[in-house]
Amino acid sequence: MVFGHHTSLLVQDNKPEECSVCYNDYDDNQLRPRTLPCGHTFCSQCIDNAIENGQLTCPSCRAEHAATAATQFPISYGMEAFVRKLKDIQLTQKKTVPIKKKLHSLVQEQKSSISSLITSCEEVLSQLGEYRGQLGDWKTCHLQLQDRLYALVEQNKSAMKLLELEDTSVVDMTTQGEEGKTQLQAMLGSLDTVNTPQEVYITIGTADECSMKVEDWLKKCQELFPDVKTVHTSVKVQKTIREALEMMTTETGATADPVHLGDSAFSIMDKVQEITLQIPQKQLTVSFFIFSHRSYHKILSCVLRRGSLFLSISRFPKDLRRMREPVKRLVEAGRVLAVQEDQDGRRSARITLQDGQLYLHPLLRQPTPAHAHTLQVTLLHPLVVGVLEPSCTLAFLDLGWAGSTRGRVTIRLTPDTPLARQFVLLCTGQRGHTYRNTKLFQVWDKGRSGECVAGGDYESNDGRRGAPLLPDLHGRYRESGRAGAVWSRWSPGAARSAQFGITTRDRQGGDQCSRVFGDVVSGLDVVRAAVNHSDITEVTVVDCGVVLPL
Residues 410-421: what's their mean pLDDT? Predict the structure, then answer.
């Protein structure tokens, strides 16, 4: 039998528990390890197979040994002990596998926890970055305001310098005048005491000289005073600064009121917005201060981020009367916008002034016009938060057909009713839906008692839909059979309760409409003209909104 010497050595070195000839593990039976006189060890079976003619050649070192059977070579008890120990180690390793799995599970759990913390760190770092950006915007606003304040201060200093120069000049001229007056008084006394002709001539000559000086002084005073530039600059700067100060109602030394910031689930920017929303309005009062369109976006985005339309109107009448003509023209031209910014983005609504009435149009997702401005005033519009007051209940619908707007319908809403609040939401578009571009879709009892028209399907525009925007529309509603009544066609819990009806002819016989939440106060003739149009579905609400009280 021929053995591979180098291969056997390599195998033996790598796996001493194996026989280097048959590559089987040693055991306690036929494969018991036996050591040859040359010192190399093989299994009993391989040694028996290698004996030929009473001779055995060592597979490792090629030494020859006389032998007739493997049993004549001693058993390698050290190798057997080594094999047993190795097997024990392998068994121990198998038993520790569950422990390793448990440790692996603990490691994975710890890695998951660390990954979660890393994600939280990244989120907070992102919030900190956003907050720092907000702080940067505010600092920029403060610096811009500071620059404007410094400009006012510099104007005031320049006016003061002119006044000081003028005052110095007045003091000098006053001194000259006092001296001239004193000299003239002395001349009067001298003329009373002259006795000789020579004294008379001398005194009269001196008096003439004094008189000429005083006359020159009088002429100079007339020419020098008042200095037109000084007076004009002083009065103009005073007026400008006084008006700017009157616009501000900031309380000196005002401290922040406690603000509830919610639980830890609130993000940093959520808390910033919460603080902004809960700041008492008296600290936010800026009556008719004109901002550039970029500044106004920053200001309103802070105040309006929660989706509530902040349009302050309580001081509008007084401030409107004090508005300069350029500002008034901005309002009349529709370049003054209200902005709402929420998680769905930014929308804007025009504010217009027509025939002495201020109108807020619906919020639309549209680009802000260039050079847009805002007039920020002091009170949250009551209709937005559901507090309807008698002076703040007017809404309007502009109806049109055949390619033109035919007229405006103004509706006075019944205070403190859910249907009225919903009507305002759909006129202003604060929840994203609006009556704008919806159609009137049905007329009942045309030409007869109780004639009325229906509209308000903002979803399908055909009378089949019009879901409510508020969760509960139940409330105390009145009944009316009068022309101009605005009422809900469906019960408060119905799936189409955003639809409305408008009665255009008085009902006879005591029949009345229920769930009345408003009355047409102007423009009923427009509704009647729409009813008489050949196809009511061609009549469209081309615009809508609310009337802000003046």
Answer: 92
